[in-house]
Request: fold
Amino acid sequence: MEDFRFQNSTDIRFGKHHIDEELHDAVAQFGQNVLLTYGGGSIKKSGLYDRVMKALAGLHVVELSGIAPNPKIDSIREGQKLAKDHDIDVVLSVGGGSVLDASKVIASAKFYDGDAWDLVADRGSQSRANIDQLPVVDILTLSATGSEMNAGSVISNPELNVKLGTYGPKTPAVSFLDPQLTYSVSKWQTAAGSFDIFSHLTEQYFDRSTANDVTAGIIEGMMRSVIKWAPIAIKEPDNYDARANLMWGATMALNGIARSGNANGWTVHPIEHELSAYYDITHGVGLGILTPRWMKRALSAETEGKFVRFGREVWHLTGDNDHEIAEKAIQATYDWIKSLDIPMTLGGVDINTDEKFVEMAQEAVRIGHLDQGGGYVNLTVDDIVALYQASSTVEGFE
Ligand code: NZQ
Ligand code: ZN
Reply:
């Protein structure tokens, strides 16, 4: 087990009965000037917008709408201007991970006078970790990213074909998690969100640390839960237990608990972020396509033990032949992803050319330090090009 520090101060209000009663005070404790952020309109369609406005009565509310999936830097720039012009005290984010990720960076941008993209791109002295951040309150409407209890944001700059993670000094101050708000999430987004949760777990499970049994066991339990409840939520969108387990699973998968004691090298996320940066595809779907191919590449004599444990503890596989268990675990992962109706090739998300594979692989290696111990097993540019190619066909899986 590696040394670690774990601290998380987000105030979680989970369940059916918090929002209408508690939202006003949860926001007003930070001030009167509120920047309300949301996406493309799902919150108006569901009636949540009206509930929020009612709860905020008496406060000075400024709105920023239209934050897109894979949130773009232009929304942050717009939010930065509003936050400064209206002397905003608190950001209220209502939506999925994209709205929340953008809101967190806007919360930092209030205290920055330059171009907001610096806050995403700069890893040095201007890094967001060194700049103040407004409190963020959120109402989550999609279970996936864990953004509701972590300090990360992932922001895209379409002009540069870049999608980058950035970390602020604070996790959200208060997160309202009502699983009922996710009943209206489409099957596609439910599948994508569920696989995003699963991917956060695999990224932290296949880890170079040793003897980290507590974390591995916690992750296995969460994996079994996502495997069980995702298909139910897809079939029965208003199944409360399914939506509740996915919501809490998403939060717990990426709030720091599942990384405690890890070496923490993520691999598939940097490789997927390039797909989203170049082709603006749904993050969880990209992960679903890439992950089984990556697992095949990562399996070796050295890593077999972890894959065997994954097979026995997560997929309930039995038998004496370890190598067979490891391979069956990867196939079981593929079959489960496919059962969620995630298209299992890049062609399924309209990526029908390999013209950007080398460029994307170079960026993934650079950003994720994937050839220098940045991931679970080292990968070169050629390895990643091969992964993109393997993701273009179902060969080896069907
Ligand atoms: O924009 P609206 O109209 O709200 O519609 C959204 C959007 O079109 C819709 N939606 C959300 N809640 C809904 C709903 N539709 C009906 N009913 C509801 N209740 O769903 C669409 C996708 O929303 P989005 O917020 O993009 O999804 P998600 O939560 O999966 O967020 C994905 C983004 O998070 C980043 C991803 O890269 C991607 O940009 N990530 C953030 C992480 C973090 N902060 O820690 C980690 C992740 O690995 C991930 O990279
Ligand atoms: Zn993710």
Observations:
- The mean pLDDT is 97.
- Residues 94 and 139 are 5 Å apart (CA to CA).
- Residues 11-182 form a domain with the Rossmann fold fold (CATH 3.40.50.1970).
